[in-house]
Each structure stands twice: as structure tokens, then as C-alpha cells.
Amino acid sequence: MRLFDTRTRERVEVGAGPTVGLYVCGITPYDSAHLGHAFVYTVFDALVRYLEHQGRRVRYARNVTDVDDDILRKAAELDTDYLELGRREVARFDRDLDGLGLRRPDVVPLATETVPAIVDAVRTLIERGNAYALPDGRVYFDVATAPAFGALSRLTQERMLAQFAEKGGDPDAPGKRQRLDFLLWQPSAGGEPGWPGPVDGLGLGRPGWHIECSVMALRELGPVVGVHGGGDDLIFPHHEAEIVQSEHLTGRAPFARIWMHAGLVSLGGTKMSKSLGNLVFLSDLLERYEGAAVRRYLLSHHYREGWEFDDAALADAAVGLKRWRGAAGAEGQRPDLELAFHQALADDLDTPGALAALDEAAAAGAGGTVRTLADVLGFALPG
Fold first, then answer.
1. What whole-number distance in Å separates Cα of residue 99 and Cα of residue 299?
2. What is the b/e burial string over 77-98, where b = at least 16 CB atoms within 10 angstroms of the residue's CB?
3. Alpha-carbon gap, residue 98 to 75, rounded angstroms
């Protein structure tokens, strides 16, 4: 199976080993799952299922960022404990993805449970000269020590700075050596949770976002991850930062053999975003459509392409699912369509091509083929 690697811009073989380590960046649990989340995790569910169909074992890790500026702000607004808010939202998120028929990851590491390992990692980066501490307790990664910084996104310096600022970075913070240096550790403000940090005498603090994912991925999957995934919006700075800090921690490269990024979902011509409020919530869709129909709709889009939510197309997906079920009682076989289905999925997880083969088999009355192929993607049909 070949997947498009964001770093090399080429289709790369997943590898011949029996086990594939997959790390997918998870949620910050402070609000409901929307269609953009559903698309990303449905894509990786399809990848896991197809690799397993090929006889591989997949160790799938998807983290939960349960300490972060956003969750702390939301918890303060609701006057509730941030851990309780996180538990509540994770449970709701899991219910929504269960409703889609997605299988849960093998491991779901929590940032709060990984803090001691994160402190050790930050201390190691300071000792090796890749990070520096400021008197107020902030610790930054020094990007000047990492020439590979920028190789994943291939952005210009100007675009990196713009995206860094747009996505929560602090390019103009006082005391930094370089404007793109990113936080590894920050002092806890009043009322925020805090832990003893990597430098003695600088008070309590909490980890930065990027180092959380690096440490959780390394702990669960080892120094080289087979496939690392997430949405397109995470390429810079999050995944860019993960690469340089992880490779300097382990002394091994590449940190991930394949970087796999899903396109973004839009509504009204604008990317769905919690900050903008232009969201289609998965729970709302599941009140109107069965989960298998929503999942079929999501898989009708190639994972690397951004797309616009279309309610009529979702209704068509529900009709298409009924056609599969109507055809599944027959026993006909179409080996040519089975071949087309597997060729599509093996070539960069082309789920629209795979669904087209399924639709053609249903139209031809090849129920045996429909049942067999639908099962590969987790659609259980009668017969």
C-alpha cells in the first residue's frame, strides 16, 4: 500500500513489516465533535481497516490534549474543573464516533498523565542545547539548532511567521532568541494547574502543546512512527515542531516515515472552525441519518482534498447505502470490481474509487462482491 507523504511529496510504501504504528493527533476536549473531526478520524479508521485486511497489525494511538489554553479558558467560563470538562467532552466525543461505527484506538494517552515524561524530555532538550529557559519560567525550543525546521511545510519564512501567529504562537514575546522559537513549557497563571518544571526554582508550570504530542507518540510507538496523521491545519507549526523536537530527543530520523494529512471541511466557503462558529456538529447529523450513511458520505471524499458540506450529497449517500443493502442478498461475484476496489485503496487510500466499485457491483446485482467489499470498510450488510 502506498500513501502520499507530506514531507517528501511522493507516494511511499507503508512498509512490509507485520506491525504498523499509527499516531493521529486527537482532540482538545472542550466542545462537541464537528464534521471536520469526523472526517479525519473516519479516514484513519478506513486506513486501519484496510491495513488489517492486508494482514498487518496496527497499533493505533490517538491522544487527548486535556490541558491546554482552550480547555482551561472554557472550564473557567463554565466554572467547572478542567479535568471534569475534559472527561465529559471525551465521553461525548467517543459516543459520536461510536455512532459512526468507528473503532476506538488501541491506546488513548492523556497529556495530563504524561507530564512527568514531558518534563524529562524538556530537560533533555535544554541539556543538549536545543532549548533554553527564561527567568520567568518559559522554556523555548531554539529552531536555530534545527536546520530541518520548515522542511515538512515548505513555507517561506514570512508564511511561517504568519501561521505561527494565527495558530497561537508568540513571535513577538520578549526574551526569545528567534521569532519562531516555540514553547515547550510555560509558567502556570493563577488558578491554572501546574507541575514542577524542568528547571528548579522557576515555579510551577505546564507543557506546551507540541511537546505533549511528541512525548506521547514516542512513549506509545517508539522512536520512529510508521504513519503520523492529522488534519492539514496541523502541518505548521504543530507537526513541524514535533519533528525537530522528537528527532533531537531520540537522535533518530525520520521521526515519522509517512506524514498523512486530511483535507479540511468547509461550510459556506469557509473552513469549519470552533473560533468562527461555522460548524456542523456530528451529533446533529446522527439525529437525522444513521451513522453508516454519514460514514459513507465522508468516505466519498478523497482524504487529501478539502471539500464543502452538502446536505443533498449526504442524503444521496443514505440512498446509496440502501442500494448496497438491497443488492447484498444476491450471490453474484464481480472479480473485476474487487480488483478495482483494492487497487483504489492500495493507491493512497482512494475511498471514492473504492465506493465507486461498490456502487457498480450493487448496480450489477453482484451481492457477494458487495458484501465482501463493504465489510473491508466496516459496513456490515445483511446476507
1. 15
2. eeeeebeebbeebbebbeebbe
3. 25
**Backbone angles phi and psi of 211, in degrees to 5:** -70, -30
160, containing H or E segment = helix 157-166
- Please give the average per-residue pLDDT across 223-237, as a whole number: 97
Residue type, 67: V
The answer to whether the CB of 367 falls within 8 A of the CB of 308 is: no
C-alpha cell at 15: 512498509
Q: Given strand 307-308, what is the order of strands in its sheet?
A: 270-271, 265-267, 307-308
Question: 285-317, pLDDT tens digit by residue?
Answer: 999 999 999 999 999 999 999 999 999 999 999
**What is the spatial distance between Cα 200 and Cα 328, in angstroms, rounded to a whole number?**
66
Grid cell locating 218: 514516542
Cell 497563571, located at residue: 189
* Rounded CA separation 201/224 (Å): 34
365 pLDDT above the threshold of 80: yes
- Cα separation of 189 and 283, whole Å? 34
User: What are the phi and psi torsion angles at 179 (to 5°)?
Assistant: -65, -25
**What is the DSSP secondary structure assignment for residue 251, as one 8-state letter?**
S
Radius of gyration of the chain (CA): 22
pLDDT digits (tens, 9 = 90+) for 20-65: 999 999 999 998 889 999 999 999 999 999 999 999 999 999 999 9
β-partners of residue 186 are 206
At 91 the three-state DSSP class reads helix
Nearest C-alpha neighbor of 38 from the set 338, 376, 293, 380: 293
Domains and CATH numbers, the chain: 17-271 (3.40.50.620), 310-376 (1.20.120.640)
Residue 270 has pLDDT above 90, yes or no: no
3-state secondary structure of 185: strand
Is there a contact between 122 and 250 (Cβ–Cβ < 8 Å)? no
CB 321 within 8 A of CB 293: yes
Confidence of residue 145 (pLDDT cuts 50, 70, 90): very high
> Among positive and negative, which fits the CA dihedral 36, 237, 275, 32?
positive
* CA–CA gap between residue 328 and residue 365 (Å, rounded): 8
DSSP 16: S
pTM for the full predicted model: 0.96
